[in-house]
Amino acid sequence: MPISRKRFLTTSLAAMAASFASPPVILGGGDRKKGIPGLQLYSVRPDMNKDAPGTLQQLADMGWRKVEHAGYWKRKFYGHSAAEFKKMLAGMGLSMVSGHVFIGPDHWDEGRAEFTDEWKYTVEDAVNAGQLYLVTPSIADSWRKDYDTLLRHLEVFNRCGEYCRKSGLIFGYHNHSMEFETFFNGMALYDIILQHTDPALVTQQMDIGNMYGAGGSPLDFIRKYPGRFRLLHVRDEVKVAAGAGERGAGYESTVLGKGVMPVGEIVNAAFRKGGTTEFIVEQESFQGEPAIGAVRENLGFMKQLGFLLVIILAWASVGCQAKAQVNNPRILMDDYFGVNVSGCTANPPDVKKVAGWIRDYSQWRWLEPEKDQYHFTNASGYMNYDAWYRRLDSQGIKSLFVVQQTPKWARGKDSSFAPSSGQDGLHPDQYTDAASFFYQLTARYGRRKTEAVRLRTPDKLSGLRLMNAIEVYNEPDGHWGDHMSLQQYAALLNAAYDGNSDSMKGPYGVKAADPDMLVAVGGLAGNQESLEKIVAYAGRAPFDIINAHYYTFRKVRENLRVSVAPEWSSLVPDMKEMVAWSRQHASGKPVWLTEIGWDTKPHNTESVTEQEAANYLIRSYLLALGAGVQKCFWFMYSDIDDSRPPGIFTSSGLFENGSTPYTGPTRLKPKLTYWYGASMRQWLSGYYFAADSSYPKGDSTIYDFRFSDANDKKRIAVLWYCPRYQFEFRPLDTSPANAAYSFLLPDSSWKITKVIRPVADTLEGQPESFGKKAGGISLRLDATPVVIEMDRDR
């Protein structure tokens, strides 16, 4: 759960989001499953060699968002280091998903049977440049001089796949025409490559133009080797004179749609059956046209095939405001507050007072302890999920259902998660058991009725309309629980979301049961870095909700962490970064912060006082809101039972655990965090978030969040003071405990009706003293937020 944050924003869009208000615009619709096409930079090679930055900017301006390089030489990408080139691309809203580097005798030491430093540096630079794929565009002549030599070096390809995978890369092979013109033992070279490379280690980048020109059929190869082609070079070809053309085969490439190839049919087959997630356009010949004009036409053709065309429009300045806004969708505060619960344990009427949403930690092994034996009404012998969710629904509480903990019968041989039949878990098709479970869960609790023949429960119930969102495992990037690599998790997510774009045979995945059910990526401890890797491995964003976890730990010294105030952490920049990334790369999918909290029992160095935790609850909720987060969930509903040893996250509840004697209006004894959270939810009920107006007049110690009702007849301001800090965990020695502040009304039509702060044992709050002044009031702010209610005086 600790956060490892990149301390700087990786794209100019993220920086822009911190400074401007309007979001980017996605033009032209498209099929979100197909995603965004890429461009092989060899298509504009003269321009890149002459002016790489200028050419890349032209590509970005016309709407390209992904590129693949073919210009790596002496540890430079078009003359720039990996870090420089990645930064340059990010500054233009581009990312480099793949790259071509030929692997040959200089990279493999035959005598020592290991890779040379030159290849190791190549892999290192690919990682640092942000690539997911590293593709060799051919195989060396000396490595295919005879059949045995070929097989020996195809094993080197497998070894390379293993080496790359350790660095988070996927190794691939790109075909030219000779793979269909060269034969060993009556078999085409390309068939031999496909049959003697491990699909889990070596993916294929099918160049459909090279294949077609040499007499091969892309459609036949997709049918013969389904799921093998993660990358596709999308090309079209025209007939030229015999012996002419790019490979001497009588064909050369042209603008998509102007040649003789069935490009659309091939692309759709690759999408449905080929396992393709990256569609990269390449054009080598231009029939006298400028290359830049041709690639613009190619992008328009890809849009016609159903790919997203993304254009980032200019961002509108918010003027000279000291602290810029992140422009949220209009958020009703009743729907913003959430809390984490565990398996049918919380009391819904008590939940309702503090949260409109729950995040319910549940386990697959409880609900399907044996294959196709579903226990929805008697999980673990006592939990009735039908009844529990009906109680939540009766209180108007919405739910995010977290699936974790794979049952033993469905686990891989050497893992605790969910690849079926003990496989390596690198392809969605290996997660049929998990995908089936997600289908059955959604069919029962989603909003759509399902044919009884598809249901595996004895009662055949479906369409109960009791769940709102489903989360595919928890913290897949952590080293605890259902641990898996992010590459494995991406494959699981593809299967659980929609049966890998409906390519798996059978009723698999959430969307197959209910297309309207929201799917959250598993709550991420590593946040942005993990999110980018999952999307890259998946080849798309197979989720509807971006799901982040954040805890404000700071390392004081080796082996010693402390928890700090949310303002002294990277909470706000981290969340802004994810929101900006979503706008650029994921069609603006909402970011939810589904875990944040502070321990209050003094059993570890991460704990804080109850007063501090209560203050931090309100402040972290609002800071995240201002950063663009659309829902925020406290961790946890109640403290962990005393039977468990004390430890981290065992005392961060809104309530004491059940062992604490209590008779009162709630089932469990409330902690101060409950009173503060419930008060804020009650006071902001019916209000919409309006603005983060913090840092008035440049004062970075004053925080000010504004809310209004639907008709802007009532407004609320929530204010507090937090001193500046140094070394990220210690306030300045001279920092006062509070600060004088002058609050001004918007204009003379408004009047202040109430000034209160939250306190224990009541949801009414405690009146706050203030002095009247022209146009407003003067008061002293401290660490506990103060609420100012205003009405229009008409």
Q: What is the number of beta strands?
A: 39
Strand content: 15-25%
Radius of gyration: 29 Å
List segments where confidence is low: pLDDT < 50 over at least 5 consecutive residues: 1-33, 310-328, 726-732
Averaged pLDDT:
87
Count of individual helical segments: 21
Give me the secondary-structure category. Answer: alpha/beta
Spatial gap, N to C terminus? 51 Å
Biggest sheet strand order reads 2-3-6-9-10-13-14-17
Helix content range: 25-40%
Provide a descriptive summary of the structure in words.
The chain is an alpha/beta fold and 794 residues long. The protein is 28% helix and 21% strand. The chain has 21 helices and 39 strands. An 8-stranded parallel beta barrel has the order 2-3-6-9-10-13-14-17, surrounded by 4 helices. Strands 23-22-21-20-19-28-27-24 form an 8-stranded parallel β-sheet. A 6-stranded antiparallel β-sheet has the order 29-30-31-39-35-36, covered by helices on one side. Strand 35 and strand 36 form a beta hairpin. Helix 1 packs across helix 19, helix 3 packs parallel to helix 11 and helix 20 packs parallel to helix 21. The longest helix is centred in the first third of the chain and has 20 residues. The protein is globular. The chain starts with 11 loop residues before the first helix and ends with a strand. The N terminus is likely disordered.
